[in-house]
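Sorry, explain these tokens?

___
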Amino acid sequence: MRPINRVPSHQPKTNINNLFDDSDSLISDIKFVVQNKYIYDTDLEERISVQFSNLNIHQNRFFDAEKILLNEINENQSNLEHVVHCTKLICKLYLAVCQKDKAILFAEDRISELEKSGDKKASYSLQMANGIMHFQLRDYANSIKLFTSLIENHSKQFNTEQLAELYYWAGSSFFWTEELDVAQNYLSAGVKLSKECNNLYREVQCSLLLSALNLFNNNSTISIEQLKFAYSNLDSNTTTQYEINILSVYACISFIESDFDKCISYINTAITLLNKTENRSKYFLIYKLLSSAYQKIELFDEAKTAENTCVTLLEENSKIDSSIRSLLNYPSFSVFELAVNYALKHSATNTPNPIIDTNTKAFDVLVIDDNKLNLFFTKKILSNKGYQTHIASKISEVKNILKNNPINVILLDIQMPIMNGYEMFESLVSDGLITQGKPMVVAMTGYDSEKDKNRAYKLGMDDYLTKPFTPEQLNACINNLINQKMEPIENVLQSQSFTYAALLQDKFGFNEAELQKFLELLSHQFRNTEKLIYESISLKDCNELLQVMHDLKSNVQMIDDTQLLSLIEEINYSISDTDSLIQHVDKIEKLISFLTSTQRKMRSELQTQFH
């Protein structure tokens, strides 16, 4: 093994605006930031992320920087605020050297240690930082899960300024998954909380995102007011990133309003700023919008030049490791992506199109929960998807709704005072308000144990949803039930002459106990796959969808289902990007329908042959 040459540390800088602008001063800059408590500055935290994304950190400097931060954590266990902020900084360091798995694991280990020590406040603070990291890595499902859990269960542990930050990140996560109403509620609350604690910086961030969100809602007047507020109150080490995003949203408004000259002017101003940054490739979509604007006014040579620049930057950006790209994925730095994509889609279709139409308006959903906040947000999620949504928290309200409305699906919270979900379900069955699987019932609970799941299924419930859940998980669950509704379970076995039990026994030589266990696992895998497919479609993530197809194929090969295998191959061949995902959604829906039928047949066999 070659010896590592130690590079002497540079003298610390006196101007914090020049921190981390070269890798040679990494060690001295980290010492300076930690010793002078600048590490607690949220504004500087964003700048550190931007600077880290540009550094080419040598192995020896990485080891030295890691050692300094680990020592800070180990030697300051009594100063938990310091431990939290050093943990956040070391996670950024791991991302900068393309070790995102190590960053996630390190954060989770620190959270676990803080929980064991009983310091809940520090644990929750680090959980929020973990949620931010998941957002930056574009793992929006986990970021939503972490943020909503903190808001619903632990909001009293945060001061007003921390709550403003928490609502900002929760709103951003919902915005990036296109849950617009929920995002607006969180971001508006973020603005209100920011005003209460006089945090103008956070208010600017929330306002910038709301300006783009109002663009989606065709409220350009309100959007422009919010942009003006954000622009006039910029006071940040990362002002250039904010300005580029503000100008991009202005350009998108002009593009949608067919004022293409103004759109081009805004973009060219943004490009002037862009050329001063080291992260130019991140903004390739801006050139795509510029090309489209030039085409609209028939300046085809300029359009071609802009298109070529877009392609070049896209290629450069694709070569950057996702860990490093994540350091720049702050909502206020990346909102231009949502705005530009919306403007281009609006230009092509003039109306936003849902990816999947499941005729949800024909379905009535009843949500039963004693937590008013849970009722509010669950109703919002369902209403966004077009479901007729009813809410209740008491058995008397539930019975009244069931007697007077054609409810198709019940979402039933298990942990409720006075009468828990299991007891309420039995009472409704006893009163004849739930009969023969109508309405279908989903148990909702914070406990993800096999014992609880088995109890729910044995009572006759149709599905089980662990809280906190994401909008994608909830929508996938209900879509799964809707598909199941199309074919009664007692008809499934009659529709096919063979049984999976016989096939698997012949193929693998299982005994009865092994066969039962294998069928249960396979049925569960197919049910989970359906949810993952819906989630990847909702996020328009073709890479995630193709990974799901890869994993599904090995499971399907076990049951020799040539029809399913053929569909999987067809999807793998057809889908390469977001546009092709939308174009071939009919194939995906067909696959889901087949999966549902297969999964229900397995459940039927388990009920008839092993019980």
Summary: The radius of gyration is 27 Å. The longest strand covers residues 440-445. Residues 95 and 323 are 5 Å apart (CA to CA). The chain has a mean pLDDT of 79.
